[in-house]
Amino acid sequence: AATAPGKKITARLKRTLPVRGPQAPTLSELMRWYCLNTNTHGCRRIVVSRGRLRRLLWILLTLSAVGLILWQCAELLMNYYSASVSVTVQFQKLTFPAVTICNINPYKYSAMKEYLSELDKETKKALETFYGFSEGKSKVRRSVDDWNGTGSDFFQQIPLLKVEDFSRTATELHSGQKRRVEGSVFHKDSSIVNSGDSNDIIGFQLCDANNSSECALYTFSSGVNAIQEWYKLHYMNIMAQIPLETKEKLSYSADDLILTCFFDGLSCDKRHFTRFHHPLHGNCYTFNSGENGTILSTSTGGSEYGLHVVLYIDEADYNPFLVTSTGAKIIVHDQDEYPFIEDIGTEIETAAVTSIGMHFTRSRKLSKPYSDCTETGADIPVENLYNKSYSLQICLHSCFQKAMVDSCGCAQYAQPLPPGAEYCNYKKNPNWMYCYYRLHEKFVKEQLGCQQICKDACSFKEWALTTSIAQWPSIVSEDWMLRVLSWDKGQKLNKKLNKTDLVNLMVFYKDLNERFISENPTNTLVILLSNFGGQLGLWMSCSVVCVIEIVEVFLIDSLSIVLRRQWQKAKKWWSHRQRARAGKAPQGSDPERQGHDNPTPVSIDEDLPTFTTALRLPLPQDSPLPRTPPPNYSTLHLDTAFTEQLPDTLELGQH
Amino acid sequence: MKLKKYLVRALHRLQKGPGYTYKELLVWYCDNTNTHGPKRIIKEGPKKKLIWFFLTLLFASLVFWQWGILINTYLSYNVTSSLSIGFKTMKFPAVTVCNANPFKYSEVKPLLKELDRLIEAALERILQPENSSDTVSPPLDLELWNQIPLVLIDEQDKDNPVILDIFETNQTAVGNERGMDNETRKKYKLAVKLCSHPGSENCTYRNFSSAAQAVTEWYVLQSTSILSKVPLHDRIRMGYQAEDMILACLYGAEPCNYKNFTQIYHPDHGNCYIFNWGMDEEALNSSNPGAEFGLKLILDISQQDYIPYLSSAAGARLMLHQQKSFPFLKDQGIYAMAGTETSIGVLVDELERMGYPYSDCTMNGSDVPVKNLYSQYNTSYSIQACLRSCFQNHMVEICGCGHYMFPLPEGVNYCNNEDYPGWAYCYSLLRSSIKQRQICIDSCKETCNDTQYKMTISMADWPSEASEDWIFHILSYERDMSTNVTLDRNGVIKLNIYFQEYNYHTISESAATTIVWLLSSLGGQFGFWMGGSVLCLVEFGEIIIDSLWITIIHLISWCKGLQQRRARARYPDVPPTVSELVEAHTNLGFQHETGLVEAHTNLGFQHEAGGAGPGAQALPPEPGTPPPNYDSLRVQPLDTLSPDSDTD
To answer: Where is composition skewed (Pro residues) in this entry (chain A) (predicted)?
Structure first.
């Protein structure tokens, strides 16, 4: 009576829910039982069919149905991760994108004089020596006389060479001496050299400062490219040594650049623009950068309601070697996107009105496992050097910069500085140019692995631009327009603005339809299960219940039957041995021989029989009294609702 | 009584089998249903029975949950999009060409003469205040000026800006200013003064950061007021005529001329000409890509005849749009520059959407609550037309007159300074009102079929220097029948408009979830978890009906029992009525069965080892003589299990 309540409960559970073995004593019995009672179609046919051929046919059909189900379900599983595209168009108030505007010329040439005068002199000399070009006749003699007198830094570091291709000899510009070209030759313009062309090729040689025998010669088919590239290398060296504050002063101020501004039918001024210093384009100004917390939006499309600016780009103050075109450059981008103006900017002509109609599209891809894109860039092992949200371009640039700092020890000028690094210049890193060109070569040939590491972003916004140009100001309005604009600029009235100094730009939404292209998963788990159900049902009228049945019958029951048989064998063997020892002949009934007529479970288990088992129980053998047979009235009742059930059980009982 | 009898008979007929109690019914259902789970519950041993019971419940709830998800998915009306790209014979787009300048200056000069003199004088004063008083000019008509004056605002002191009227207070203001240097003068800004009535205090100043904008804006307001009084046919006459503007036209290999263009009056751009608008004749098809098979136009915009203060940009304005739609050049138009050849490759970008309930768009605009004013042009609905109509309706409502840039509703006049002196004030308030725009955005719907013409624009100088002479000569001769060259580089424009190699890009929507999809998914779910089908649902419904019957019968018999007891209380020994006897008889067959089933199920549930099997049931457990009374089999249940006693 002192048993614990836990034990009581378990005892009770054992009593009410006793463990019983399988329904059939042998495997074949079990199979037969399964086939007759299973919910799937097909199996029953196998058992019920008469004749070997028919049975074989049914076995084959059932097996092929199982095969088909497995195949189709595998197909369904494999196509689970597929996406469908949906396009929605919504007409709504749209946020205006950020518009970054730059002058093509980065710094005022007049202000840069003190930094660049040496370089420009050298460049002019080079032009004169190679091509006989001179700006003014009087200057020519003098500059040539100066030639040997001053030691020219720039040519010593990176000499410009005239290469004769066949002999592989180069004439050095500075000393005029010929020498053999060693090392590899890279042609920047094209990979194939026109060997039939006897024209001299101009280029420059970059050597490893530590190991002077290792040199690379870069050649160009046109002197224009060679001079510009060469100039740019030196220019970057010089600029890298100037601190940012000074550079910002050297470049254009908002007042310099922006003459008039008009947005959404209202006047705007320089306060709506945010300065952004770009290493190659100097001071750029971003309209609607969202830096002060508010992002402008438009609720009307059309050219009247967009951004309308007139820019003053002082053409006379352009650097003649660095930039050879005139105008402005703009890029339309999202507020948290970095403007890669050197890569994807649009150039704007002077003395014309450029109307840019925008059409907004937003796209969204599904990330893993549907496609290989990244949501935030956090899973990319490249540090984002830009203070903006992730994009493929940012990743590639950051990756290159990192490789540059790792292998050359300094950072490239055109990209932001990683923490703890500084920009390359000759003084500190005499070797950097050679290193940079080598690295860039590798980067372009995808040997740095950046292209493999960097993934594209999953969602992106795109403004499709339609650009068209008209003449501005028109002939008849030119006069007053220029006068009034000069007044705006606050200049003296005698100095009128020139129309080639002006850029007129309109950026507007063509319509306020936002197109949103998104990927959606085609399949959800619910649909996958539905499809499974459809397949299972179509071929075999099967369901999860059948699967459970199969597990039950083929794994649990048959295993227990096998185990039981083994156990009995062992027992038999043991009793044989004992009997052999005792010398007694085996007696009694083999429980197995009794078959289903006297099922072992009943004798072994303490279980009370269920209704179905009870039906199969024989009449008690030890009924002591003879009885009159029971009146067979009950047969009348068998023709009722239970007729379907009873024959089954009776049939079983007869076996 | 009759009712009950009838009901019982009906039940009898309806169901031969399921039985008279809930339990019986349930067991019968479990045993005979086609759903996979329930059969197991009654056919297995006790432990498995429990497992199967919970499994069946679990699966049933899973099925219902997933059905809920599926129905929700269906009701969200998702769409899938399919994209097709290629080339096919398509309708060539309608091409609208306009001059950027609305009227010939030589024609409108008499109207705008005063205005031009005013602005010239004003500019003179603004730009050269030192010697402005010296210039002698005929007296200015200041009436126009005073309606909407331009003022100078000195915003050095933010809190109380100094406002200087250019003409009136010039003596004192300029006198004060004279001593200042250029540095301070820069601080002056131009503004347009707008008052609700002339001379009233209710004024606003529209500030401009640039004088150029202020002058343009002012001029537009004034000229709008003047031109709105001019009748339409005069305005058309003052604009550019088709034969002057369209010099040459070639469509594919077929020549065309200005007569192939439909004239339309556009408030921004004066006379516009539309090629292939499809209003009168069938739209032209183009079945070949490339510039050879497109439209080639040579236009003259005669830049010398521009109105100097109205439009500062010179060029042609053109737009590609669908047939029978109104060209909204300010929104979708592009410029073509004079002295160039502009090539435009066209790709038709179509978006075909399903209407309600899949997306909120309109097929033809009939369900939009805004009166479409552009229907007077006989054009189809578009979102731009809706927004403009919405604005114009608001304008008419608030300011009492219509804006010159938009079509007029019936019985309303255009605004002008004489009749509606405060209109500019009213208009500028309305235009900058965010609320008004939001109302229009909310009430207009986009169209379901959205067609855009994506253009690839390229430009080259035209005519080349070598060919310039003879081209101008021929074109001038053809136009004016004279040998004088009347054209120059600043006027001529060449246009090529053609289909690209791939000329369409169609995104069409189709329903992602149809009713067929829903049914097959529902069936799949039901089949997957329980092997069920619609028939199983019917079975279930049948069972519910059966149980309802049983309930009804129980209720009736309970009522009857109550009645009987009352009657018995009054007359203790009442002989059974005929209906009772009938009932008892009709019930007998079932009653016995009930007993049998009960016995079976009892056996199954309680595991009475002694009384197992039908044989055992027939045999009484105790030894003795077999029961000879065969009738007892029938009578017994009547006593113990009659419906009456059940309810007690």
So the answer is: 621-632
A92 contacts B209? CB cut-off 8 A = no
- The amino acid sitting at B214 is A
pLDDT higher than 80, residue A261: yes
pLDDT digits (tens, 9 = 90+) for B485-522: 888 888 899 999 999 999 999 988 888 888 888 988 88
Domains of chain A, CATH where assigned: 27-81+533-558 (no CATH), 86-106+253-368+458-521 (2.60.470.10), 109-131+154-240 (no CATH), 374-457 (1.10.287)
pLDDT for B171: 41
CATH architecture of B80-102+242-356+449-511: Sandwich (2.60)
Give yes or no for B204 touching A (CB within 8 A): no
pLDDT at A482: 87
Task: Give per-residue pLDDT as tens, A577-598.
Answer: 888 887 655 444 444 444 444 4
Rounded Cα–Cα distance for residues A232 and A322 (Å): 7
Q: Does A41 touch chain B (CB under 8 A)?
A: no
Minimal CA–CA distance to B150: which of B164, B135, B129?
B164
What tokens appear for B136 in the block? 């002698």
Q: What is the pLDDT at residue A503?
A: 92
Helix (H, G, I), strand (E, B) or coil at B403: coil
B16 Cβ under 8 Å from any chain A Cβ: yes
DSSP 3-state assignment of A277? Answer: strand
Contacts of B373 (CB under 8 A, 6+ apart): B385, B388, B389, B392, B393, B406, B407, B408, B409
Residues of A in contact with B105 (CB under 8 A): 476
Q: How many CB pairs under 8 A join A and B?
A: 335
| pLDDT tens profile B45-57 | 777 788 888 988 9
**What is the value of pTM for the model shown?**
0.77
DSSP string for A4-48:
-HHHHHHHHHHHHS-----S-SSHHHHHHHHHHH-SSTTHHHHHH
Residue B28: its chain A contacts at CB < 8 A?
641
Map residue A356 onto helix, strand or coil: strand
A68-72, A231-235, A463-467, B259-263: segment of lowest average pLDDT: A231-235
For B:374-433, CB contacts with A below 8 A are 383-384, 387, 431-432
Provide the pLDDT confidence category of residue B531 given band limits of 50, 70 and 90: confident
Please determine whether the domains at B80-102+242-356+449-511 and B362-447 fall in the same fold group of CATH.
no
- Quick check: A644 and B59 CB within 8 A? no
Domain ranges for chain B, please list them: 1-78+526-558, 80-102+242-356+449-511, 105-125+143-167+187-238, 362-447
The CATH architecture to which B362-447 belongs is Orthogonal Bundle (1.10)
Q: Which of B17, B100, B308 sits opposite A641 (nearest CB)?
A: B17
Q: Which residues on chain B are in Cβ contact (under 8 Å) with A637?
A: 592-593, 596
d(CA A15, CA B606): 12
Which chain B residue's Cα is nearest to A629?
B626
Q: What is the mean pLDDT of chain A?
A: 77
The pLDDT of B192-217, averaged and rounded, is 80
Distances (CA, A) of A631 to A616, A653, B588: 20, 21, 19
Distance CA B9, CA B3 (A): 10
- Residue A259 · residue A489 · CB < 8 Å: yes
Measured in angstroms, the CA of A355 and the nearest CA of chain B are apart by 7
